[in-house]
Design a protein that fits this description.
The protein has 2 helices and 8 strands, in the order H-E-E-E-E-E-H-E-E-E. It is mostly beta strands and about 120 residues long. The protein has a single domain, classed as Lipocalin (Beta Barrel), CATH 2.40.128. The chain has an 8-stranded antiparallel beta barrel. The longest helix is centred in the middle third of the chain and has 6 residues. It is globular. The N terminus and C terminus are likely disordered.
Amino acid sequence: MLSIGSALGSAHGPPIPAGTYVSPTVEEQEIVREDTIRFRIRLAEGEPLVDRQYDFHVTTDGRIQPYPMTSVDAGLGVGRFEWRLRGGAILREERRTGATTRFVADAPAPPGSRRD
């Protein structure tokens, strides 16, 4: 039996601080918890948001590897992008074009305010 640690490699990269990371438009997000990452992203401009949650691993070079994925998610969904942790932000790179989007940690709501 293959353990997840050996399947992904034994070296771990830096942890991703828990929180919500937002795109420049604030419409797309990644929500990071200790052991899961939830993607609320558009796969292409003008398409509806997809909402997928995965376990994840960060490699020593900062690549974020969500798992497990179906073959459809790997080729046409979240897995069609390269995900990296850089300087406290999450970067999404379109593998075909190289276009990059930077997701930054959303500022916490002030005490007593409500965030929807």
